[in-house]
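agent> fetching stored inputs for the manganese (II) ion docking request
agent> found them:
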Amino acid sequence: MRTDPAKARLVKGATGDWEVIVGLEVHAQVTSRAKLFSGASTAFGGEPNSHVSLIDAAMPGMLPVINRECVAQAVRTGLGLKARINHRSVFDRKNYFYPDLPQGYQISQYKSPIVGEGEIQVDLTPEHSIKVGIERLHLEQDAGKSLHDQSPTMSLVDLNRSGVALMEIVSKPDMRSADEAKAYVGKLRTILRYIGSCDGDMEKGNLRADVNVSVRRPGTPLGTRCEIKNVNSIRFIGQAIETEARRQIATLEDGGTIEQETRLFDPTRGETRSMRSKEEAHDYRYFPDPDLLPLELDPEYVDALAAFLPELPDAKKTRFMAEYGLSPYDASVLVAERETADFFESAVNHDGMKRDAKAVANWLMGDLAAHANAQGIPVAEAGLSPASLATLVDLIAEGVISGKIAKDLLVMLVGDDRGAEPRALVEARGLRQVTDARVIDRAVDAVIAANPDKAEQAKSKPGMLGWFVGQVMKSTGGKANPQAVSEALKRGLGI
Ligand code: MN
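agent> prediction call returned; pasting tokens
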């Protein structure tokens, strides 16, 4: 009997089972050179207040002008999320007072966002996926940054980030566990990176999530939710959900109630803390920005962007399985980063010949990935070109080198012999596999002659063959063909 997946993810409380409900609001920084309504640079890490136009500083009389590229990025993203593109959207002022918000309001989209409902396929395992609904995607400005540790008596402000374009991507409350939420953010990040509309760099804060969590008894209406603000790593998103769900369950089981509020996750203490009671939309006094016309998009414009959308991860995974006969697992790993998928395909098809795709995948996901991970760099930047990986696989297939030598060869190619041509390197280092029967027989005879006792024992204990193979491989520097060695040993030992 199979476990009902809906039951398996329930949380056990002291008084029975609880269901955890999660919805996410992800803020993704739009990849563009200039800000949403000004020409100032979006470059990360500049001197404080060096990328600030008069608009970003909210000087009186300045007028915002929409950045075309940011609009195109939002539309591309909407298409990638299989979402409805709204041909007419409106920018609103969201009013609140904060020292890092010089305008006194954020230009955002409220009732008419640029992108409406969509859907993401979230892979929980390579074989099992769920659908998570997208509620909307809207464009808005980022705020500046208050610095409280620069002066003993004052807080300073850096407006470099002020006015940078963000896409706020709001999911439906379709997730039921921390794992589902983590997989959702991972998949969303992959899609954004494929499209090139956000680099997904969570360490720089370019992708961050507000996490909405509530709990309920299975089958009952939704409970009151709390929003955990600005969680900036996938691991912390998972921890924040688990911590907050436990807090809510404990509160309810003690007879308490959950107040709708905004909370902060403190990863070092492993707790969420109340920040402020939740604002309602009317607290922001939204109204259409009188300085900006409604944004109208021609259907032809949207169609043109759709035509140039790259192949997205789900489609690529399906194609990799069909075209190269890969398992769902291998295909999932390879498509997680677009560069890795491209690397794989150019290695398989290098020189116009189709080589063993599974062998290429194994080397890519095994030895090469291990080397790249150890250095914390992407596989595609590990120092081995797709052409070199293809040649390495060919050399094994042709019997020129053994799998064991190939591992050494790979280490040379990503290390001291970076950039070398694999075939030339095999010759230069004398790595060619020995298949010459006379050479192998000579090595086998020498090992048997040096170990007469063991050779005698082997006649009654054929399991000792492995030890002899090891000795011959050692004496030939790993270059003898293991198959041929094994055959020669059986003859020599008479087993
Ligand atoms: Mn927002």
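agent> quick read of the result: The first helix runs from residue 5 to 8.
agent> awaiting further instructions
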